[in-house]
Amino acid sequence: MCKYKVGLIRVLTTEDEELLLSHGRLIMLKFPEVEVITKCIPNQYDGINCKELYDLAVPKIVEIAKSFEDVDMIIISCADDPGLEEVREVVTDIPVIGCGETGLGVSLMYGRKIGLLSITKSLPRAYQKIADQIILGKPDNVNSTRDLMIKEGRDNMLKVAKELKEKGAEVIALGCTGLVTIGIEEDIEKVTGLRVINPVLVAGMLASYESKR
Amino acid sequence: MCKYKVGLIRVLTTEDEELLLSHGRLIMLKFPEVEVITKCIPNQYDGINCKELYDLAVPKIVEIAKSFEDVDMIIISCADDPGLEEVREVVTDIPVIGCGETGLGVSLMYGRKIGLLSITKSLPRAYQKIADQIILGKPDNVNSTRDLMIKEGRDNMLKVAKELKEKGAEVIALGCTGLVTIGIEEDIEKVTGLRVINPVLVAGMLASYESKR
């Protein structure tokens, strides 16, 4: 059987194959009908955590999107949806999906007040549309996806997640796909008792949905 | 294998089993891992197309939600999400999903300008949050789900769908689940060339996603 093929763009440069392929593997594990081909942008080891790095990344993301051959969907695996419009302008024949839109879209289905875990103080672009429904949580000493990969960063994220619950969040959205990379979802559900929306898995779910049409 | 069980609420009274079960069957066809048990509200043959019928339906929907035994999720199969908050207040241990939120959430993943096909002139509640991104299309002579079931109503919907495309819609959302019942999705895709988001299938997709957790 021919699988539904997805081109997935990581917006973080890495030579670590485990790290590079983690999002794609997660999707393929849950949705075996989907095949994910992963590529990352060059020369951006800190990923995207500020306007400058965002602007730097967009043309690279467009180039990578154009480089995929024979895929049925493109996923930009970042909660800020960098380059989403720009890629849609050049790739017009298949769905182009961003992990900001996916996380937002499904979070909205689960609650009115969304607790958003983030590594920056500004809301991801998709979430700015419904800013009044967002409670943002950012640990003081976590400022990049690298900070998430050490125990202290992870522990601080869990602490902030608990605070989001106390502040009235009805569902938790991951405002950085680096949180997917470190597999913190279940731990957050344990400490908060809330449903955590994994934007990468939602993107995979969409690919699975498309594959059945 | 134990299937993931969904209680689905139709907000239209009918003794026609084909009509009653159409949404549930559609979900089970695409997602065989999901089992749908369907119930409809009593004494409301015109469904919901105005404030009075909405208010009349809410307590009935809550009662039906409470009557489901041993289900893993509840779906309110109406684009206006009637009773969504009220049901969530009494059913707190499983996800309660509304087909307004599902349609909106996935439409947002596919485009910035959403063409919304409707049987009323007011936006469904979920869509009111992003009113500036919505282009509403309602045929003059279609005012209830019954009107959709005759050829003229269907044809007028297709005409309005084409107009939405001309007005700049990038994706089409079904603003009434009666449009799902009449299976108009593929025809709209043919005449517009746009992706049509079926809110009932999206709800099914969520059930499938939950079943894999």
- Chain-averaged pLDDT of chain A: 93
Uncertain regions spanning at least 5 consecutive residues of chain A: none
Q: Name the strands of the widest sheet of chain A in spatial order.
A: 2-1-3-4
Largest interface (CB within 8 Å) is between: A-B, 26 and 26 residues
Multimerization status: homodimer
Can you offer a commentary on this structure?
Two copies of one chain form a homodimer. Chain A is of the alpha/beta class. Chain A has helices spanning 17-30, 51-67, 84-90, 99-110, 125-128, 145-148, 151-166, 178-181, 185-192, 199-211; strands spanning 4-10, 34-40, 73-76, 96-98, 114-117, 134-137, 171-174, 196-197. The first copy, chain A, has a four-stranded parallel sheet with strand order 2-1-3-4, with helices on both faces. A four-stranded parallel sheet of chain A has the order 6-5-7-8. In chain A, helix 1 crosses helix 10, helix 4 packs across helix 10 (199-211) and helix 7 packs across helix 9. The radius of gyration of chain A is 16 Å and the shape is globular. The mean pLDDT of chain A is 93. Chains A and B meet through helix 4 and helix 10 of A and helix 4 and helix 10 of B.
